[in-house]
Write a structure and sequence with these properties.
The protein has 149 residues and is α+β, with helices and mostly antiparallel strands. The chain has one domain (3-142). The chain has four helices and seven strands; from the N terminus they run H-E-E-E-H-E-E-H-E-E-H. The protein has helices spanning 9-20, 46-58, 84-92, 133-142, and strands at residues 25-27, 30-34, 40-45, 65-67, 71-76, 103-106, 119-122. Strand 1 and strand 2 (30-34) form a beta hairpin. Helix 2 packs across helix 4. The longest helix is centred in the middle third of the chain and has 13 residues, at 46-58.
Length: 149
Protein backbone atom coordinates (compact mmCIF):
# COMPACT_ATOMS: atom_id res chain seq x y z
CA UNK A 1 0.00 0.00 0.00
CA UNK A 2 1.18 3.49 -0.82
CA UNK A 3 1.17 5.49 2.43
CA UNK A 4 0.97 8.75 0.48
CA UNK A 5 -2.50 7.78 -0.78
CA UNK A 6 -3.99 6.99 2.65
CA UNK A 7 -6.56 9.70 3.39
CA UNK A 8 -9.34 8.34 5.59
CA UNK A 9 -9.45 6.53 8.91
CA UNK A 10 -10.76 3.47 7.06
CA UNK A 11 -7.71 3.65 4.75
CA UNK A 12 -5.39 3.70 7.75
CA UNK A 13 -7.26 0.87 9.49
CA UNK A 14 -6.92 -1.23 6.31
CA UNK A 15 -3.21 -0.32 6.17
CA UNK A 16 -2.60 -1.50 9.74
CA UNK A 17 -4.48 -4.74 9.05
CA UNK A 18 -2.76 -5.45 5.73
CA UNK A 19 0.79 -4.20 6.36
CA UNK A 20 1.23 -5.06 10.02
CA UNK A 21 -1.37 -7.76 10.65
CA UNK A 22 -2.90 -5.78 13.53
CA UNK A 23 -6.56 -6.26 14.37
CA UNK A 24 -7.61 -2.61 14.57
CA UNK A 25 -10.94 -0.82 14.70
CA UNK A 26 -12.20 2.65 13.91
CA UNK A 27 -13.71 4.49 16.85
CA UNK A 28 -14.63 8.14 17.05
CA UNK A 29 -12.59 9.03 13.99
CA UNK A 30 -9.42 7.31 15.21
CA UNK A 31 -7.69 4.00 14.52
CA UNK A 32 -7.69 1.96 17.72
CA UNK A 33 -5.86 -1.22 18.69
CA UNK A 34 -8.10 -3.06 21.16
CA UNK A 35 -6.39 -4.64 24.16
CA UNK A 36 -7.30 -8.33 23.93
CA UNK A 37 -5.94 -11.78 24.73
CA UNK A 38 -3.82 -11.41 21.56
CA UNK A 39 -2.41 -7.89 21.83
CA UNK A 40 -1.62 -5.54 24.70
CA UNK A 41 0.53 -2.53 25.52
CA UNK A 42 2.74 -1.44 28.36
CA UNK A 43 3.18 2.32 28.94
CA UNK A 44 6.48 3.59 30.33
CA UNK A 45 7.90 7.05 31.04
CA UNK A 46 10.14 8.06 28.12
CA UNK A 47 13.41 7.95 30.07
CA UNK A 48 12.71 4.41 31.30
CA UNK A 49 11.39 3.29 27.91
CA UNK A 50 14.68 4.28 26.28
CA UNK A 51 16.57 2.11 28.78
CA UNK A 52 14.18 -0.81 28.30
CA UNK A 53 14.49 -0.50 24.53
CA UNK A 54 18.30 -0.66 24.80
CA UNK A 55 18.13 -3.69 27.13
CA UNK A 56 15.75 -5.52 24.80
CA UNK A 57 17.93 -4.74 21.78
CA UNK A 58 20.90 -6.32 23.57
CA UNK A 59 18.78 -9.46 23.93
CA UNK A 60 17.84 -9.34 20.24
CA UNK A 61 14.19 -8.56 21.02
CA UNK A 62 12.42 -6.21 18.61
CA UNK A 63 9.43 -4.37 20.06
CA UNK A 64 6.99 -2.10 18.20
CA UNK A 65 6.87 1.20 20.10
CA UNK A 66 4.72 4.31 19.97
CA UNK A 67 5.97 7.61 21.37
CA UNK A 68 3.91 10.30 23.01
CA UNK A 69 5.20 13.42 24.80
CA UNK A 70 6.11 11.83 28.11
CA UNK A 71 5.41 8.13 27.59
CA UNK A 72 6.19 5.35 25.17
CA UNK A 73 3.89 2.40 24.55
CA UNK A 74 5.37 -1.01 23.75
CA UNK A 75 3.13 -3.49 21.88
CA UNK A 76 3.22 -7.06 23.18
CA UNK A 77 1.51 -10.42 23.36
CA UNK A 78 -0.12 -10.91 26.78
CA UNK A 79 1.53 -14.21 27.72
CA UNK A 80 0.66 -13.65 31.38
CA UNK A 81 -0.68 -10.82 33.49
CA UNK A 82 1.72 -9.75 36.27
CA UNK A 83 0.60 -10.68 39.77
CA UNK A 84 -0.55 -8.16 42.37
CA UNK A 85 2.91 -7.62 43.89
CA UNK A 86 4.54 -7.02 40.51
CA UNK A 87 1.69 -4.68 39.49
CA UNK A 88 2.28 -2.72 42.70
CA UNK A 89 5.97 -2.31 41.83
CA UNK A 90 5.12 -1.35 38.23
CA UNK A 91 2.64 1.27 39.48
CA UNK A 92 5.31 2.78 41.76
CA UNK A 93 7.61 2.96 38.73
CA UNK A 94 4.86 4.74 36.75
CA UNK A 95 4.51 1.78 34.38
CA UNK A 96 0.97 0.98 33.22
CA UNK A 97 -0.58 -2.07 31.61
CA UNK A 98 -4.10 -1.31 30.37
CA UNK A 99 -6.75 -3.96 30.97
CA UNK A 100 -8.45 -6.09 28.33
CA UNK A 101 -11.30 -4.07 26.85
CA UNK A 102 -9.38 -0.81 26.63
CA UNK A 103 -7.60 0.35 23.47
CA UNK A 104 -4.59 2.33 22.31
CA UNK A 105 -4.82 4.97 19.58
CA UNK A 106 -2.56 4.43 16.57
CA UNK A 107 -1.18 7.25 14.41
CA UNK A 108 -2.61 8.03 10.99
CA UNK A 109 0.79 8.82 9.60
CA UNK A 110 4.25 7.33 9.68
CA UNK A 111 6.07 10.60 10.31
CA UNK A 112 6.81 12.25 13.62
CA UNK A 113 3.90 14.70 13.53
CA UNK A 114 0.44 13.17 13.45
CA UNK A 115 -2.93 14.50 14.51
CA UNK A 116 -3.04 11.90 17.30
CA UNK A 117 0.05 13.34 18.97
CA UNK A 118 1.98 10.08 18.71
CA UNK A 119 4.37 8.46 16.27
CA UNK A 120 6.12 5.16 15.74
CA UNK A 121 9.60 4.77 17.21
CA UNK A 122 9.58 1.20 15.85
CA UNK A 123 6.57 0.24 13.73
CA UNK A 124 5.35 -3.36 13.78
CA UNK A 125 6.49 -5.68 11.02
CA UNK A 126 4.17 -8.02 9.16
CA UNK A 127 4.90 -11.63 10.02
CA UNK A 128 6.93 -10.72 13.09
CA UNK A 129 5.11 -11.76 16.27
CA UNK A 130 4.78 -9.28 19.09
CA UNK A 131 7.15 -10.06 21.98
CA UNK A 132 5.75 -11.52 25.20
CA UNK A 133 4.59 -8.99 27.77
CA UNK A 134 6.62 -10.82 30.44
CA UNK A 135 9.85 -10.10 28.50
CA UNK A 136 9.15 -6.36 28.50
CA UNK A 137 8.07 -6.35 32.17
CA UNK A 138 11.25 -8.20 33.15
CA UNK A 139 13.41 -5.71 31.24
CA UNK A 140 11.52 -2.76 32.77
CA UNK A 141 12.10 -4.08 36.27
CA UNK A 142 15.76 -4.87 35.53
CA UNK A 143 16.69 -1.32 34.44
CA UNK A 144 16.16 -0.13 37.99
CA UNK A 145 14.11 2.57 39.62
CA UNK A 146 16.53 5.49 39.60
CA UNK A 147 15.75 8.26 37.19
CA UNK A 148 18.85 9.56 35.42
CA UNK A 149 19.84 13.16 36.06
Amino acid sequence: MNVEKLRTIDDWAAFYRHEFGLVVTERGGFVMLPITARACVIHLPTWRAEQVRAALRQQGVRVPMLARQIRWSFLATPDSRPGAQIMEVLNRLDIGIPAVGSAVMLPTGLGRWTREGCHWIEPPERGTPLPPLSTIVTAALAVGSDRPD
